[in-house]
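Run folding on both entries below.
>entry_1
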Amino acid sequence: MAATLGAFITPFVLSSLTVALPNIGREFSLSAVELGWVSTAYLLTTGAFLVPFGSVADRYGRKRVFIVGMVIVVISSGLSALAPSYGWLLVARSFQGLGAAMTFSTMTAILTAVYGPGERGRVLGINVAAVYIGLSVGPVVGGLMTERLGWRSVFAVPLAMSLVVLGFVLRSVKHEWVEPRAGRFDYAGAAVYAVGLVALMWGLSRLPGTIGGLVTAAGVLLLVIFAWWETRVAQPAMNIDLFRRNRIFALSNLAAFTNYAATFAASFLLSLYLQYARGFSPEEAGLLLIFQPALMAILSPWAGRLSDRIEPRVVVSTGMGFTVVGLGLLAFLHQSTPIWYLILTLCLLGVGFALFSSPNTNTVMSSVERRFLGVASATLGTMRILGQMFSMALAMLVFALYLGPVEAKDADPLALTAGIALVFGIFAVVCIVGLLASMARGTMHGEDETAERQN
């Protein structure tokens, strides 16, 4: 129950806060760029600290790190709701991302440690379904609360739910999961990794400008230095050998990155298309866009169970195939595209992502030894965050090059639609890369049972 509620909280906040952003901008007189950082600050902090906290959790206790993370989420949610200024809100959101990094890096690892290979897919499927339920109900509940109670009320939900999760874990979860290791924690590597990832993500958000290119290059360089350093320390923050020697782990994470990179911005792009190019109201657009996350929530538990019985590579690759087809169809968007066509593509994306997510998570977590579960969980979470940032950065880059500096609401509808279609075409190509990685990863069934016996 604790893991399921924890999985619901973050996507709910992300999707509900999107509806509240205009009200926040009006209260603090923010520009569009400043408003974007209300969400970006959270993603940056989460992405930067996922892997380091995964290693810390393996060393000092996954339950302990999870509890501290939930406490930080409770405090930071309260501070966000009370924010008297823009700067205060950014700091509070950053701490909220820090708490999320601590819970994300341990949640999947705890579930994987508790449940064996025969049940793991089903449990992870339920966990993924909670994520999509959060994404589905977030805009509806967030819009209602923002209109009736103000944007600050949106933070009351994660605060209350985090308190429930915290109370349940403290009262009912007695076991601790820890893998003691000798030597000091790799603080230097963790610092280089965090700075490099923040630089990369911030730089991508500033492309195609010169500063954005330089900062992106600096971020890539720091991450290369981090990878080199991690191969030379006795107790690395991230076990690079998991990528070098574990083909299934490496290619499954690559598949995760490309899938999120190809799909995360889809709802954002379709929202622009429906409202600015087709004249839909926000409510009408929201009702249409709910088809994708609703199918994800319905099918994810079934897909997880399916990956317990059928080779996960087959399930995941099938899902990515559905996604490629859906994105490819969206590349032919025009101003008179029928509504049934849009619903069909959204259903294809929903089915595709449901078949992909929980089976791919099951594959990643089953491919490593028990002592690396925290690092594996954090690495997979980082691939998700990186993919989401890359997806938005790519969409913004195409808009900047294709439409120029004009605001989306003032853009020519034909040019806007053409730009959106181009982005979907690029996303389809990116997803094909992920499909190839998924197909090349190798077989899983038989290997996870062997690893379980060894541990």
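>entry_2
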Amino acid sequence: MKQSLPKLTHADPTRHQRSLLRAVLIIIFIFSLVIGSINVALFSAYQIATFNFISVLVSALIWYYYHRSRNLKVASWLVTGAILFNLACFISLAKGGAYSLIWITIIPPLVFFLLGRRAGSWVTALAYSATLLYLYVNLSNLPPLSFGTGAMLNIAEVMLVHWFLFRHYESSRKSAYAELAHLSESDRLTGVYNRGKLDALLEQTIQEVQEKHTPACLMLIDIDHFKEVNDSFGHLVGDQVLKQVAVTLKRNIREGDAFGRWGGEEFMLICTHTELEHANQLAEDLRQRVMDTVVTEKGPITISIGLVQIDPTLTSTEAIQFVDRALYKAKASGRNTVIIAQSA
């Protein structure tokens, strides 16, 4: 190929978990640094502050490890272990006072998000069981509940951590649903609409033509001699040609038009609010753009286009039949041309 192709990225199934891991490490670093400083400045709680500052160092080391290794699973377990150890030390040093036990509530959202449902379930169960055991053993020695400055800060800090975690979770959830919706209607190779989405859009366009009497046109586009590309250069180069043709066509259609891969080396373009004359001009422009842009070692890639104006009396099946016949005539007449179908 003489021209490099733009890369089409696919969704990383662990992207949201990776994002959460980074967010958690940042939260641990900032919170531990701030809380440790408060414990030193306001309460002279040097033992607890020591563990806070150790958490700062540990979070930085885990970040460094993850940045170098990109091992999400190990990094997630390291973060989980660091959090559990830190909470256990804090609750033990505080002897269950100053509402320190409230920190146990951050474990479920953290471990379920980081480790998944199965590991999150048993880690949470163990942490809660250990907390209940600690309460049972130390029940007679627990200090009376008091609502002082330390208790208020612990409650406020836990609330803030929950706010960060669930805000991140909700953002990730919406992003994941949006990705799923996009994937369900997109062609995996080229990134444009797939046939199912095109079917739905064509039905919608025909309904609009029938109800509002607005003009619309349909194009079926075929890459000329595509089998020869695969035979000469291999299917990987053939895939690259498909991608670049899709990108070239996509970049040169108008806003509001629907474009996608119909199947194989065929693409479909639905032109709404478009008279046949304007659609024909667009088709010729697209044909020329592809020939000028997509080039292999054997020369430029060309396309043949069948075009039909969507008549209010046509069904989607009939419209496709007409445009398919026009495309067949374009290929039979030498290719690299546009043929307009007579729908009446």
